[in-house]
Design goal:
The chain is of the alpha+beta class. It is built from 10 helices and 9 strands. Strand 4 (199-205) and strand 5 form a beta hairpin. The termini are far apart.
Length: 304
């Protein structure tokens, strides 16, 4: 039935999207009572996945990311905690918040879900030609980009000329979220900000500081610098802010004649590592003595 004031073209577009939704949800088995015919509902499985890929996330962040009712997600988290799949600990920054991490049983469950999901999608793609698979992947990426656009939200990235409270607050949140042992002192932060080939960038969303990234000198490698402290507040994720921060950092390094950007990470930071690799950062040998680092990557910027 055509609604008053809506053009026939829009009505047709709505019908196409709804038809695709019905097709895709049935094709992936999302209408079944248990996800992937396992022991979890789709929502439970998604919560476990989000907690696994973003350790120390909070219920508030999950609510925003998944669009769930506060009471509903609270009940699910309580159930998953009771089943010893999720651990909840008080946040050092805000005692009212509970930080969520996977227990050992939760990690095992997520590993099984990942394997089952990958096999399901492999089967879905197996009958397609390489050309059709590439078209499908590119089309899905385009759909996500279009639907992820946030109207009216302005993201601004700035390179600091002086240290400020926003920078110190975000760096502290990063240290706590990742459990950093080797932290920057006041002198090292000042060196980053005032160095000719280093810097500290902040991302602002509607004038609120929500992310940071730092660039440091790397004297041990010719024509190279090091990316550090990439962090976006959980409440601001999903808006490509990390990409915008890295865009600014890489452009600055390139404009200052640097050919390589190095970085280190560790295995648990799967989302960050996936982002780096998507942007062209490749595996390299250990280049520092950071005791926490297990993953070492670098990106070639080329010559100016």
């Amino acid at each position: 039935m055509k609604q008053s004031g809506i053009s026939g073209k829009v009505v047709d577009q709505v019908a196409v999207v709804r038809d695709f939704n019905r097709f895709y949800t049935a094709r992936l088995g999302l209408l079944r009572k248990r996800h992937l015919d396992g022991v979890f509902s789709l929502t439970e499985a998604r919560i476990l996945y989000e907690v696994g890929t973003t350790p120390n996330t909070t219920a508030a962040t999950l609510r925003g990311r998944l669009g769930l009712d506060a009471g509903y997600i609270s009940r699910l988290l309580a159930l998953l905690t009771k089943r010893k799949l999720i651990r909840q600990t008080a946040s050092r920054l805000d005692g009212r918040e509970r930080l969520l991490t996977l227990a050992a049983a939760g990690e095992a469950a997520v590993a099984r879900l990942d394997e089952q999901s990958s096999l399901q999608i492999q089967e879905l793609l197996s009958d397609l030609s390489p050309e059709d698979r590439e078209v499908l992947v590119q089309s899905l990426s385009k759909v996500r980009t279009i639907l992820s656009r946030e109207g009216g939200e302005a993201v601004k990235v700035v390179r600091l000329s002086e240290s400020n409270d926003d920078a110190l607050r975000l760096l502290h949140e990063y240290y706590e979220a990742v459990g950093v042992v080797q932290r920057d002192d006041h002198e090292s932060i000042e060196k980053m900000i005032h160095g000719s080939s280093s810097g500290l960038w902040l991302a602002y969303l509607n004038e609120e500081a929500v992310g940071c990234v730092a660039l440091k000198r790397l004297p041990s490698v010719p024509c190279a610098v090091e990316c550090k402290r990439l962090y976006v507040r959980p409440s601001a994720r999903g808006r490509h802010i990390a990409d915008k921060l890295l865009d600014a950092l890489e452009e600055f390094a390139r404009s200052h004649g640097k050919r390589w950007i190095y970085l280190d990470s560790y295995d648990d930071l799967k989302v960050a590592i996936a982002l780096y690799r998507k942007r062209g950062y490749l595996h390299c040998e250990r280049y520092n003595d950071n005791p926490q680092a297990t993953v070492f990557l670098r990106k070639f910027l080329g010559e100016e």
